From TrEMBL:
Entries under SUPFAM superfamilies matching the protein: Adenine nucleotide alpha hydrolases-like
Phosphoadenosine phosphosulphate reductase domain location: 7-134
GO molecular function (one): catalytic activity
InterPro entries cross-referenced by the UniProt entry: PAPS_reduct_dom (IPR002500), Rossmann-like_a/b/a_fold (IPR014729), Sulfate_adenylyltrnsfr_sub2 (IPR050128)
Domain of life: Bacteria
Residues of the signal peptide: none
Name the record gives this protein: Phosphoadenosine phosphosulphate reductase domain-containing protein
Pfam families xrefs: PAPS_reduct (PF01507)
Organism: Thalassotalea mangrovi
Length: 298
């Protein structure tokens, strides 16, 4: 009997997964694929707007969310506040990224479990490009899920991504004007300049992030306080005009250095376009995604 295969493709609201969905639709039109978006409940309005535009191009997108796990274990609604309490009032961090497990992976697992119980093997399409390091082992959940990398198979690189969006009538999501990636409004992978921009663009969401920092005032079990920007750096510090100016000046210097390098490379034939926030990791000499999981930002 032929193996039952369910093809799924996750959209994060980022440019690579969006371009991947459009690319797979173009190049593998016979594939019966189901799109999903894991809505943490803490997405940027710009991300939600972009998902609506994508849906117009792709067709139905399943919306998975952590709150759909509501009361599964009888422990109440999975709001971030409740999750924070469950995790001892420790904010998630690069060292303990419980948010990705709770807000992204668990809803995904719950969704695919229904297919798996029905005898399907899952083929999960992932937007890792040919010009990125091999991250084929990124999926940490133990399920019969095979990752498929069409961009790697077909040699698609960063400079192809915007072309794919444009030929499908889509511009980059609006948040790229001020932030380097999709994901939660309070994501700790943000740089200080992005926190400042969040404060400016969405003051209410900045205030909400500040509120989560407070926890219940016993924000630690070892006597130290942790904040989104790291130890000893609450978001409150960004209220100080001197601090703001320093962050903006440092960012402008970093940008100037990066553009100088870009121009030098352009003389050698590298004429890739510059988009300040889409190129932010490269500008700061960081790994693309800043170490964040592809589930969150691709
Ligand atoms: S986007 Fe950031 S805060 Fe949200 S789940 Fe991913 S790593 Fe955690």
């Amino acid at each position: 009997m032929a193996k039952k295969i369910k093809h799924v493709l996750g959209l994060s609201g980022g440019k690579d997964s969006s371009a991947l969905a459009l690319y797979v639709k173009e190049t593998r039109p016979d594939l019966d694929i189901e799109y999903f978006f894991t809505d943490t409940g803490y997405e940027l309005p710009e991300t939600n707007d972009f998902i609506i535009k994508l849906e117009q191009q792709l067709g139905y997108i399943h919306k998975l969310n952590a709150r759909s796990l509501n009361n599964i274990d009888g422990r109440g609604e999975k709001t971030f506040k409740n999750l924070l309490k469950e995790h001892g009032n420790y904010l998630p961090s690069q060292r303990d990224r419980w948010c990705t497990v709770q807000l992204k992976l668990k809803p995904f697992e719950k969704w695919v479990d229904e297919f798996i119980a029905d005898g399907y093997e899952i083929h999960n399409y992932v937007g890792i490009r040919a010009d990125e390091p091999d991250r084929s082992g990124f999926m940490t959940i133990e399920k019969p899920i095979k990752s498929i990398f069409p961009f790697r198979e077909d040699g698609i690189v960063k400079s192809d991504i915007e072309n794919i969006l444009q030929r499908n009538g889509l511009e980059l999501p609006e948040y790229y004007k001020w932030r380097s990636r999709s994901g939660c409004t309070f994501c700790f992978y943000q740089r200080k300049i992005e926190w400042l921009k969040l404060k400016d663009k969405h003051p209410d969401l900045f205030e909400q992030a500040k509120d989560f920092e407070k926890g219940d005032d016993t924000n630690t079990t070892v006597g130290e306080r942790f904040y989104w920007m790291g130890q000893g750096q609450p978001l409150d510090t960004l209220e100080d005009p001197e601090v703001q100016q320093r962050i903006m000046n440092n960012h402008e210097k970093q940008k100037a250095r990066f553009l100088k390098k870009k121009r030098r490379n352009a003389l050698l034939g590298d004429i890739e376009g510059f988009c300040e926030f889409s190129d932010l990791d490269e500008m700061y000499d960081s790994l693309e995604g800043g170490g964040a999981c592809v589930t969150c930002y691709k």
